[in-house]
Write a structure and sequence with these properties.
By secondary structure, the chain is mostly helical. Among the domains are: 130 residues, Beta-clip-like (Beta Complex), CATH 2.170.270; 161 residues, no CATH class; 163 residues, hpI Integrase, Chain A (Orthogonal Bundle), CATH 1.10.443; 58 residues, no CATH class. The protein has 34 helices and 23 strands. The strands form ten sheets. A three-stranded antiparallel β-sheet has the order 3-9-8. A three-stranded antiparallel β-sheet has the order 4-6-5. The protein has a three-stranded mixed β-sheet with strand order 18-13-19. Helix 20 runs antiparallel to helix 24 and helix 32 runs antiparallel to helix 33. This is RING finger protein 214-like. It holds the Pfam family SET. It comes from Sinocyclocheilus rhinocerous.
Length: 1000
C-alpha cells in the first residue's frame, strides 16, 4: 500500500537489466519474492475509450504497445504508460505460457490501480513476467534463439528459459534504459526493421540515466562513459540541414563516396597539415581556418565560411575503422551494422530521439579516441563538439564527463547543467572550476603517471599550481612514492594531494623571486640560499616572523624527502651527478635549515600559543549534549523504522556519529571514516570463560552490555570503539535501509552520504549538535577537547600505572603523551596550586604547612593575617567579634588534627543561659577557653550539599565569598552557622572522601 500511495517502486528488490538488442530490457528480482506478494504497479495516464482512440491514431506502434486496456465499473478504461517516467511497471515483459505474476485491480481511495502480484515464489535473478492477455500479439508466434544475457559480465544467467519470444512491436525496444549502451560480444543479432511512420513529438523531461553510464566498453583502451547526445553542427540521418544544394556542391568537390566518407583521406596516413589544406581548398574561402604556423601543437580549427554562408565540412572519426567521415550515420549503417551498439541504434525508428542519442554516442566516442591520440602525441587537430569562430589551442578545451563531447573550458559548466546524459542521482557541485576538475579525469591518462595518481591530480582546482604539478617530473614521482607507501584510501589520497600542492606552491613562488624553475632545482646544493629565499616568500616571512610557520616546518621535511628520492633514482639509474647533488643537499640542509628557517618557525609556533585561552568542556554541557542526542536519536529511529526516507537516514547517521564520538572520546575522523566491512566483521562472541574469575559481577555485566569494533586510528594503529545496545540498534537499522535511502553500493563507509562516494564529517556533526543542545560553550565541544577532558578528569582518580596505560591505549596515544599533555591546563595549575606556595611565602606561614602537599594546603586569598603579637592580643581580646564555635582547625595539618587527643574537660563558666545564635556574645576570660561543639543537623548538611557539592567532588576548598553565597541561599537552615563553619565542614568532607577512595 505504501508504494501505491507514494508512487514508488521496490528499488531494493527489483532492478532493470538489458537482455538483448531485440527484446530490450526487462525487470528482474534482486531478492526472493514470496507468493502473493505485491511486486510492482503499472503506472501511467488513466484515459477513457474516446481518448484511447485519439491517441492510437497519433501514436507510433512502439508507443501504442504501452497502453493497457481494462474494465472497471462497467466501463472501458486504459492506462497509457508510453511516457517515460522511470517506473518499473512499463518494463515488465509478456509471457503467456509461464508467467510468474498476474495483474490485479486495486481500489485505493476511489482510484483504480493496476498492480502485479506474484503467482508463485520468485527467486533472486528471475525475470518478472505476466500475461498481457489476448492472442493476437505477433511476438507470440515468432521466436528466436537469441540468448538473453540478463546478468552483468561474470554473473551466471538465472533464467531457466533458453529462448525469448520477441517482436518488433513488443513495446520494450524504446524503454528509457535502452539509451544506455552495454556492449555485448554477440555473433548474431536480429535487428527488426521498423517501418517509417509519423510519430508524435513528446516534449517530456528526460529520465534519469542508469548507472550503466559508467560501465567501460571493450572497444576502447580507456574507461569511457557510455551513451551520449549532442547538438553539434554535424548531420544526422534526418534532414537537419536546410540548404541541401550548397552542401551537395561541397560534397561533389570533396569527392564523397556512397558511404559518406572522404575517400581521399585516411586517419592513419593523412597528417593534420594535409587535412587542413584540403579543407581550405574545398571551401574556397578567403579566410583560412588556420595558418601553417599554428598547426604545430594541439589546436582546434574554426568553422569556415563562403562569403556569408557557413560551410558544413566537419568530419568525425569512426570508432571502429578510425577514419574521418562527413556522414557518420550513413557510414555506420552501411559498414558497421553488425556491431552491437550500432544495431541497437538502428533498431529505433528513424528521426526518433533515441536513435539520435545512440548515433551521437558512437560518434562522440570515435572523436574521443582520436582526440586522446592527438593529446598524447602533442601534435594534431582536435574534433570539438562545436567548432569555435576562431582557431583555439587544445588546452582550452575539455571533454564532458557524461557525453564525452569536447567543449571549451569557459562554456563547459553551462553544458554540464543541461547535458542529457547527466545522471539525476549525481548532483552537480556549483562552480566552473569544480566542473572542470570533475571532467578532467575523463580525459586520457598521461603517459608519465599512473591512473591512480591521475585521479589525485584531477581532484585539484585548475590553477597555475596544478599546471606546474602536471609538468614537474619530480613532484609526480614524489606523489607516486607517497601513494605507494600510504595506499589508495581516500584519506591517503587527500594527504598526497596536499603534499603535491605544497611542493607546487613552492615552485610557483620560487619562479617569482629566484632563478629556480623546477622542483629539482630547489634541491640543488649550490642554490640552497635561493631555496631558503623561496621558502621564506612562500611562508610570508617578514621581520623575524612567519605568517605560516607550520608550512615552513613542513617544507623542510618535504625538501629532505625529495632529496632522498632523487638520490635513490640517481643510484638506480647510475646517474652519479644526481646522486651526488642530492647527498650534498642533505648535508647542507642538515647544517643550515635550523638556523635559517626552523628555529624561527618553532619559536613563532610556541609564542602563538602563549596567551591563547584553553577551552575545556563543561561537565554540564557534556551531560546536556548526551541527553539531547538520545532524544533526537529516538525520534529519527522511529521515523526511519516506519518508512524509508533519505532525510531520516541522514539525520540518524549524523546522530549516531556524534554519539559514538562523544561516548568513546574518539577522534572525529576515525569514526566518520569507519568502513562498513568493520561493522560486519565485529567480534560478537561472548567473553572467554577462563577470564571470568578475574572480573567482578559488574564488570561481567558490562562485557555483555557493550559491543566492540576495531577500526584504524592515527598512524595506522588499531583503536576500539564501544557501542551501547541503543547505538548498535541504530547502526543495524542504518545498514538495513542503505539502498532504499539512496546510499550507493560502491560507497564503503558506515556513515556514507546518500548519492555520493564520501562520508559525513564528525566535526560538522558535533558542531551542529553542540549549538542545538543549548550548551554554554559550544566551541569547547570538539572531539579533541572532549578527549582531553576525559584524560584530565581521570587524573583525580587514584589509577595505577597499568590502568593509566589502558586508558591511554583506548584514547589512542602513548602514555608519555598522556602524562605530558593530558593534565590540568598550565593556567589552572599555576593559578590554583603554585600560587599557594607564593602566598605562604608572602605571609611567612610556610612552616605551618610542613609535611603537606599542594592539594592539602588551604589558604584563603581573602584571609587576613595578623602581622604582630600586639594585633593578635587585640584580636583575641575583642569579645564581641566572635561566636561560640570550636577552635579553628585550619591552623593544624590534617594528619596532626586527626591524631591529637581530645582536649581536657573544663568547668563551664557560670552564665544565666547558653548562647542561642551567631549573634550571641562570648564572655571574655583570661587564658585558654573551650566551647561546646555544635553538631551538624541533617537539614544543615542537605542545605550545604545543595549548593557546595561541586567543591566536595572536585576536592576544592571554597573561599569566603562562596560560603557566604551558600548562607544567603539557605538563611533558614543555616541560621546558626557562619562562613567559617561551612568552610570547615566542606574541608572535613573532602578529607573523608579522599580516605574512602584510598580504602577502595
Amino acid at each position: 500500500m505504501h508504494h501505491i500511495v507514494s508512487k514508488t517502486d521496490k528499488t531494493f528488490k527489483l532492478e532493470v537489466k538489458y537482455i538483448n538488442a531485440v527484446k530490450g530490457h526487462g525487470l528482474f528480482a534482486k531478492g526472493s519474492i514470496c507468493k502473493g506478494e505485491f511486486v510492482v504497479e503499472y503506472r501511467g495516464d488513466i484515459i477513457n475509450d474516446a481518448e484511447l482512440q485519439s491517441r492510437r491514431k497519433r501514436y507510433h506502434t512502439s508507443s501504442a504497445a504501452f497502453i493497457f486496456e481494462f474494465k472497471w465499473r462497467g466501463k472501458t478504461w486504459s492506462i497509457d504508460a508510453s511516457r517515460e517516467d522511470g517506473s518499473f511497471g512499463r518494463i515488465v515483459n509478456d509471457d503467456h505460457k509461464h508467467p510468474n505474476c498476474e495483474m490485479k485491480k486495486i481500489d485505493v481511495n476511489g482510484k483504480i490501480h493496476l498492480c502485479l502480484f506474484a503467482l508463485n515464489d520468485i527467486k533472486e535473478g528471475e525475470e518478472i513476467t505476466y500475461d498481457y492477455g489476448g492472442e493476437d500479439y505477433p511476438w507470440r508466434t515468432q521466436t528466436t534463439s537469441i540468448a538473453a544475457n540478463t546478468k552483468a559480465e561474470g554473473d551466471s544467467d538465472p533464467s531457466p528459459r533458453s529462448q525469448t519470444r520477441i517482436s518488433d512491436a513488443t513495446g520494450q525496444n524504446n524503454s528509457p534504459q535502452q539509451i544506455v549502451t552495454q556492449l555485448q560480444n554477440e555473433n548474431e543479432i536480429f535487428v527488426p526493421r521498423l517501418r517509417q511512420t509519423k510519430s508524435i513529438i513528446m516534449k517530456d523531461k528526460d529520465l534519469e540515466d542508469s548507472v550503466e553510464l559508467f560501465d567501460s566498453t571493450p572497444e576502447s583502451s580507456d574507461d569511457y562513459f557510455t551513451d551520449t547526445t549532442s547538438e553539434s553542427d554535424f548531420d544526422s540521418d534526418a534532414n537537419l540541414i536546410p540548404n541541401q544544394t550548397k552542401l551537395q556542391l561541397l560534397y561533389d568537390e570533396l569527392d564523397v563516396d556512397d558511404s559518406g566518407s572522404l575517400s581521399s583521406l585516411d586517419c592513419d596516413t593523412a597528417t593534420p597539415e594535409k587535412r587542413h589544406s584540403l579543407a581550405s581548398e574545398a571551401s574556397g574561402t578567403e579566410e583560412p581556418c588556420s595558418s601553417q604556423n599554428a598547426i604545430d601543437g594541439v589546436v582546434v580549427s574554426a568553422y569556415q565560411k563562403r562569403g556569408v554562408s557557413r560551410v558544413y565540412n566537419k568530419r568525425h572519426y569512426c570508432l571502429y575503422c578510425c577514419k574521418p567521415y562527413a556522414k557518420m550515420a550513413r557510414h555506420l549503417e552501411s559498414s558497421h551494422a553488425n556491431e552491437s551498439d550500432v544495431a541497437k541504434a538502428l533498431s529505433f525508428p528513424k528521426s526518433s530521439k533515441e536513435r539520435k542519442k545512440q548515433l551521437d554516442y558512437i560518434r562522440n566516442r570515435g572523436n574521443y579516441v582520436h582526440n586522446a591520440a592527438v593529446m598524447e602525441s602533442g601534435k594534431g587537430e582536435l574534433v570539438p563538439y562545436k567548432r569555435p569562430s576562431k582557431e583555439a589551442q587544445g588546452k582550452d578545451f575539455m571533454h564532458c564527463a557524461y557525453c564525452q563531447g569536447l567543449f571549451a573550458r569557459k562554456v563547459l559548466w553551462r553544458h554540464m547543467r543541461t547535458c542529457i546524459l547527466q545522471p539525476q542521482s549525481v548532483p552537480l557541485k556549483p562552480g566552473k572550476k569544480r566542473v572542470q576538475s570533475m571532467c578532467i579525469y575523463t580525459g586520457p591518462v598521461p603517459s608519465n603517471m599512473t591512473k591512480q595518481l591521475w585521479e589525485v591530480i584531477s581532484g585539484m582546482n585548475l590553477d597555475p599550481i596544478t599546471d606546474i604539478i602536471k609538468k614537474d617530473k619530480v613532484i609526480i614521482d614524489i606523489g607516486q612514492h607517497l601513494l605507494n607507501i600510504g595506499g589508495l584510501s581516500a584519506k591517503n589520497k587527500r594527504c598526497v594531494r596536499d603534499k603535491m600542492r605544497e611542493l607546487g606552491r613552492l615552485v610557483h613562488n620560487a619562479r617569482r623571486v629566484t632563478s629556480l624553475k623546477t622542483m629539482e632545482d630547489c634541491v640543488n646544493p649550490k642554490k640552497y640560499m635561493e631555496t631558503v629565499k623561496a621558502v621564506k616568500y612562500t611562508c610570508g616571512y617578514e621581520s623575524d616572523k612567519f605568517m605560516i610557520p607550520s608550512l615552513a616546518k613542513k617544507l623542510g621535511n618535504s625538501l629532505l624527502q625529495v632529496s632522498k628520492l632523487l638520490k635513490a633514482q640517481g643510484l638506480l639509474s647510475n646517474d652519479k651527478q644526481r646522486a651526488k647533488n642530492a647527498s650534498e643537499f642533505q648535508d647542507v640542509h642538515q647544517e643550515k635549515w635550523n638556523e635559517m628557517i626552523l628555529d624561527t618557525a618553532l619559536r613563532n609556533i610556541r609564542e602563538a600559543k602563549w596567551n591563547v585561552p584553553a577551552l575545556m568542556p563543561f561537565t554540564e554541557d557534556v551531560q546536556k549534549m548526551h541527553t539531547y542526542l538520545c532524544q533526537v536519536q529516538d525520534e529519527w529511529y522511529k521515523s526511519l523504522s516506519e518508512s524509508s526516507s533519505t532525510k531520516a537516514w541522514m539525520a540518524l547517521a549524523k546522530v549516531c556519529l556524534a554519539q559514538i564520538i562523544l561516548f568513546n572520546r574518539r577522534r572525529g575522523g576515525e569514526v566518520a571514516s569507519m568502513p562498513l566491512s568493520e561493522f560486519f566483521s565485529r567480534d560478537t562472541s561472548d567473553p572467554h570463560d577462563g577470564v571470568d574469575w578475574a572480573l567482578s559481577e559488574v564488570e561481567k555485566k558490562l562485557c555483555r552490555h557493550f559491543s566492540r569494533i576495531i577500526t584504524m586510528g592515527k598512524c595506522g594503529q588499531p583503536v576500539p570503539i564501544l557501542l551501547t545496545p541503543k547505538m548498535l540498534c541504530s547502526l543495524e537499522l542504518l545498514v538495513k535501509q542503505r539502498e532504499p535511502c539512496g546510499v550507493l553500493k560502491d560507497n564503503g563507509y558506515m556513515f556514507a552520504r546518500p548519492e555520493a562516494m564520501t562520508h559525513f564529517r564528525g566535526s560538522d556533526c558535533l558542531r551542529g549538535f553542540a549549538k542545538a543542545c543549548g550548551a554554554k560553550c559550544p566551541k569547547s565541544l570538539t572531539s579533541t577537547r572532549l578527549r582531553k577532558h576525559a584524560a584530565v578528569l581521570s587524573t583525580v582518580l587514584n589509577m595505577t600505572e597499568t590502568e593509566m596505560d589502558q586508558l591511554a591505549n583506548f584514547l589512542g596515544h602513548d602514555i608519555k603523551i598522556h602524562r605530558e599533555f593530558c593534565r590540568l591546563p598550565e593556567k589552572t595549575l599555576q593559578l590554583a596550586k603554585i600560587c599557594k606556595v607564593l602566598m605562604a611565602l608572602e605571609q611567612g606561614r610556610l612552616a605551618v604547612f610542613h609535611g603537606k602537599n599542594l592539594d592539602e594546603i588551604v589558604i584563603d586569598p581573602d584571609e587576613k593575617v595578623l602581622e604582630s603579637d600586639e594585633d593578635r592580643i587585640i584580636q583575641e581580646g575583642h569579645c564581641s567579634s566572635t561566636v561560640y564555635e570550636p577552635i579553628a582547625e585550619e591552623a593544624l595539618p590534617p594528619a596532626e588534627r586527626n591524631d591529637m587527643p581530645p582536649p581536657p574537660k573544663r568547668q563551664k563558666p557560670p552564665s544565666p543561659s547558653p548562647p542561642s545564635g551567631p549573634s550571641a556574645v562570648r564572655p571574655c576570660f583570661q587564658g585558654q577557653t573551650t566551647h561546646k561543639k555544635n553538631p551538624w543537623q541533617q537539614t544543615e548538611v542537605q542545605a550545604v550539599e545543595r549548593h557546595m557539592m561541586r567543591f566536595i567532588t572536585s576536592f576544592t576548598v571554597p573561599g569566603k565569598s562562596d560560603c557566604e553565597k551558600c548562607l544567603k541561599a539557605e538563611p533558614g537552615a543555616l541560621k546558626n552557622r557562619d562562613w567559617k563553619n561551612v568552610k570547615f565542614f566542606i574541608y572535613n568532607r573532602i578529607t573523608a572522601y579522599k580516605k574512602s577512595l584510598q580504602c577502595t
